[in-house]
Amino acid sequence: MMQPSSDPLLQSDDFVRETLDNGRFQIEIWYYSTLCDPDLIRKEIAHPFLLSDSPETFEKVLCSALTGVRITDTVHLSEEMLQGNTIIRLQGADYKLKTPKPGNTKLMQASTETTLQGPQTALSEDADTSLMLVRRRYPQQDLISEQMNLGSKSRTKAYLLYDKNKANPRILEEFRRKLKAIDAEVVFTVGQVEALITDTQLRWFPTMIVTERPDRCVLNLSQGKIVLIVDGTPFVLIAPAVFQDFLSAMDDIFLPSLITKALVMLRYIGILITTTLPALYVAVTSYNPEVIRVQFALSLAGSRAAVPYPTFFEVIFMLFLIEALIEASLRLPRYIGSTATTVGGLILGQAAQQAGLVSSVMIIVTSAVAISNFLIPINIMSFAFRVIKYPLILLATLFGIVGVVAGLIAVCFYLANQNSFGLTYFRVFIGEPAVSGYKEGDTK
Amino acid sequence: MPKKISVPLLALLLLMLPGCGFKDIDKRFFVVAIGVDQGERAPFKVSFKLAIPSPRTEPGEAKYQVISQEGSSIANAVRLMKSKVDKEFDFGHTTVIVIGKSFADHRELGRSLDWFFRRRDIQEIAFMAIGEPDALSIIQTKPKSERLAGNALMLPFTNEGTESPYIVKTYLFDYYRRWHEHGRDAFLPIVSSRSETFVINRAAIFSSNLKKLELTAKETGIFNQFLKTRHRFLILAALDGKQISFNAKVRSLRFKLVDSANKPEIRYRISINVESEDTEAPVFHQSWDELEKTVEEEFRNQALQLLNRLRDNGVDPLGFGLRYRASRHGGESDFAEWQKIYPKVTFKVNVNAHFTGTGIIE
Questions:
Q1: CA gap B62, B53 in Å, rounded
Q2: Alpha helices in A145-189 (DSSP H)
Q3: A288 shares contact with chain B (CB less than 8 Å)
Q4: Does the CB of A353 have a partner CB in chain B at under 8 Å?
Q5: Does B30 contact A294 at a Cβ distance shorter than 8 Å?
Q6: Is the peptide bond before B133 cis (omega within 30 degrees of 0)?
Q7: Please, what is the Cα angle at B148 between B49 and A357, to 5 degrees?
Q8: Which residues on chain A are in Cβ contact (under 8 Å) with B54?
Q9: Nearest-CA neighbor of B295 among B243, B334, B231?
Q10: CA torsion angle for A431, A435, A437, A441 (degrees, to 10)?
Q11: Contact B25 A304 (CB under 8 A)
């Protein structure tokens, strides 16, 4: 079946093709040495082979082993091997045995979505380990996991997880259908999956949660939502979701209720500040200085006196710098990352003002915008809000406060027009059952 | 038109709409106070107090510029003033409009000030006052404590700063309203300047845009209580020849209009809380009932004096006429009726003082 020169299998140096002989009969085994665990092969194949006195005995041993299966379909042999199987050829018949090398199963600290006193570990990059983490926290036989492979070339392993009794069958069916319809060669991450299963190309606000927290997975599973674990990334995709979900941190469950309410309010105020403050700065300084107190109007005028350029230039300049700083500190290697913040901080802090490029009030505006953006617990949502402020600045430059208000109304319309798997998106709660017994979000 | 073209075209058209509203804050001149006087060659002399912004503000360092212009109308004067400055006037923070005393004494105010009533940016925020000896000198006064130009003149009116029982205040729109309302007359505070400070402790009462009456400081204090501003005020009374000052606060103040055919009456019921503030003799062991009676008597006399004076001068800033019209069914004729009744009205004032304490001495 294999032609020595043309078969791509043989061109890979990590492909192993061995013939074993114990004196009584022979077997041939094929596997990728990088994908398979040699210890396992030795224990499950070589050792029993040595002790077997006839091919029949060995066949029995093989089939009684944990995952040994006789395969009749010889066309997909290479695919089986690429999944970490070892193929054993015994007297013309093919058997496969799962001998995967354990992946990166090390548990890492949650890094993008931290809580103060909640669980500290994140999900694993290995899908099976992630599934293990979720199952341990939700030991129910109703928790169904459907394995599937995403991407025509990458065949990335993925698990669709849901609670059979709680998940909405219509949404589940739709989710499954969309996953099956994914038309991509390689799939690496859940964000990509989200893009691939969303109908529209122009995506702005996330309609599915991406999280790395096992506790968030479990909470959402118990609320009847569907979780998609993708191998190779510690993040999972949760759907459906409403706007409020992106503004709730896992801390909200265990903190005293009044503190939670205050924190949620803080986040909403943060959103308002991060979206509107630069636009309002332009509107107030260039169109409607009458809305602020005369005392502040005069000191604002005083601080702007040295700035020769119009306000929108000032705002765009500062916001560009801060966005560049945020982006740079994300991309830079950790060792030189502090350089960017130091240099950038110096520029943003003092020098720009002393150079007469921006007013001192603008520096406060910039830092308020940057800081309050980080109040949003789910990262993608905070990115979405980083984008809104620019159209608002344009509107403020053209129409003043009226433009800002109109722009905000337009954003609300847009949000209200969104949906997540047919459910209204722009609302606070779907009406999930109260499962944590605490979070205001899950009381009806 | 195909959708592909029409949407960007519409957006482009929208971009052309804003016009020239865009003007940076540092290119605007904030007019913080406006003075209106009699001109020498023209009917109006308008003065602007223009605040000069500076990044650092210190008490007494308020920087400003005062410019004046005479003109045949206020609008005309303002147009002419525009050519005297380098930045665009911004009336968004014009909090005080000072009218010169001689202007207020000789001219009717309503039509003359029409320009102010029509400005959307001034009409809802500005306070009106009469300036003594003239508006320009009020505007030019520079108190030592002033951090930002115009603040010293503005803060007494906005309730952010001092709360004096002698300061009455009238918004521009309130003046307009009282001018057009039958049965409730307008009043304005009188501001006089003393080299480095202002004195605002009197009020002038207007009827049909003409100044009719000027109240003394003492009367203004009582008048302010009748306006229900609820500021603490002082009642001086004597008991057994010893003077006692009472710190008083009005708890409730209401009146009733009794209109019997030939004896119209207005009955006031006032209750006040009082506390002795300084005394020439200890009062703690005195009968508190007696103290209350003394205060009641004193306050009643002062109130009656004020009310009678208002009636005798034919002015009605407390809105008796409005109450009369509101409780009758005769339409327009009610007001004519009231004008006949008002001079014959007798006032009855019933004061109920409650003595809350003698102060604490440790």
A1: 9
A2: 169-180
A3: yes
A4: no
A5: yes
A6: yes
A7: 100
A8: 302, 305
A9: B243
A10: -30
A11: yes
Flag if A289 and B18 touch (Cβ within 8 Å).
no
The b/e string for B251-289 (b: 16+ C-beta within 10 A; e otherwise) is eebebebeeeeeebebebebebbbbbbebeeebeebebe
pTM of the model: 0.83
Neighboring chain B residues of A294 at a CB cutoff of 8 Å: 30, 32, 51, 93, 95, 148, 150-151, 154
A64-74 tens-digit pLDDT: 765 677 777 76
Q: Is A402 in the B-facing interface, judged by CB distances under 8 Å?
A: no
Dig out the tokens for A345 from the structure.
């901080």
CA distance B55 to chain A (A): 4
Q: Is the dihedral of CA B228, B232, B238, B240 positive or negative?
A: positive
CB B339, CB B330: distance < 8 Å: no
What are the boundaries of each domain within chain B? 25-215, 216-361
- Has domain B216-361 been given CATH number 3.40.600.10? no
Per CB-CB distance under 8 Å, the chain A contacts of B154 are 294
* B228 phi and psi angles, rounded to 5 deg: 60, 45
- Contact of A308 with chain B, judged by CB distance below 8 Å, is answered with no
Which sign, positive or negative, has the C-alpha torsion A65, A66, A71, A75? Answer: negative
What single string gives the DSSP state of each residue in A385-442? HHHHHHHHHHHHHHHTHHHHHHHHHHHHHHHHH-EETTEE-SSS-------SSS-GGG
Q: Which residues of chain B neighbour A286 with C-beta distances below 8 Å?
A: 22-25
* Residue B36 binned pLDDT confidence (cut-offs 50, 70, 90): very high
Per the prediction, chain B carries an average pLDDT of 88
Q: Give the residue among A128, A126, A125 at the shortest CA–CA distance from A136.
A: A128
Average pLDDT, chain A: 84
- What digits encode the pLDDT tens for the residues A309-335? 888 888 998 899 888 888 888 888 877
Alpha carbons B171 and B117: distance in angstroms, whole number: 11
B24 chain-A contacts, CB cut-off 8 A: 285-286, 304, 310-311
- pLDDT interval class at B37 (50, 70, 90): very high
- Closest-CA residue of A relative to B95 is A294
Element counts in chain B: helices (H) and strands (E): 12, 14
Cβ pair A400:B26 closer than 8 A = no
Model pLDDT, residue A407: 94
Each residue of B212-243: pLDDT tens digit?
A: 899 999 999 999 999 888 888 888 888 778 88
A311 contacts chain B (CB < 8 A):
yes
Determine the distance in angstroms separating the CA of A383 from the nearest CA of chain B, rounded to an integer. 26
- CA distance linking residue A252 with residue A183, whole number of Å: 38
Count of other CB atoms within 10 angstroms of residue A273: 18
Can you tell me which residue has the tokens 């996953």? A179
Residues of chain A short of pLDDT 70, as ranges, are: 1-6, 65-67, 74, 429-444
Pairing mode of beta strands B96-100, B127-132: parallel
- Name which of B25, B57, B151 is nearest A285 (Cβ-Cβ): B25
Tokens of A169: 């069958």
**CB contacts, 8 Å: B18 with chain A:** 398-400
Predicted local confidence at residue A229, as pLDDT? 93
pLDDT recorded at residue A6: 57
ipTM of this complex: 0.81
The owner of tokens 């903190």 is A255
Contact B51 A399 (CB under 8 A): no
